[in-house]
Amino acid sequence: MSLALLSAMLLAAGEKAGPLTLDTIRDVVHEHRAEVRACYDGSASGKAKTAGKLTAHFVISEQGTVSEASIRDATLDDKGLEACLVGAVKGWKFPKPKHGPAAINFPFHFGPPPAKFVPPPPEPVE
Asked: Other CB atoms closer than 10 Å to residue 69's CB: what's the count?
């Protein structure tokens, strides 16, 4: 069986290909940014446009699934946002770690979207 075929089969089965690295962890989190944003937008903090950070602690099992997740540190006091984020993270899939389960602390920064920059009109040169 070719490597390309094996990779295609793993991807079709919902498994992430490649080693578990900091970059691949960041990539998986990035793939779920809309889900994370929806947690914030639907929360009391999001409705109040409050900025802050939640640090999620999660363990990636030998199968690449998240076996446990919790909030390790928070500057926002929003239990609804915390519960939504933990629930989301528990459903994510990562590449399988080579050396057993991997414990991760990942910071999520929340706040209203930045204001759109509108440049001033050019001034005529006299």
From this structure: 19
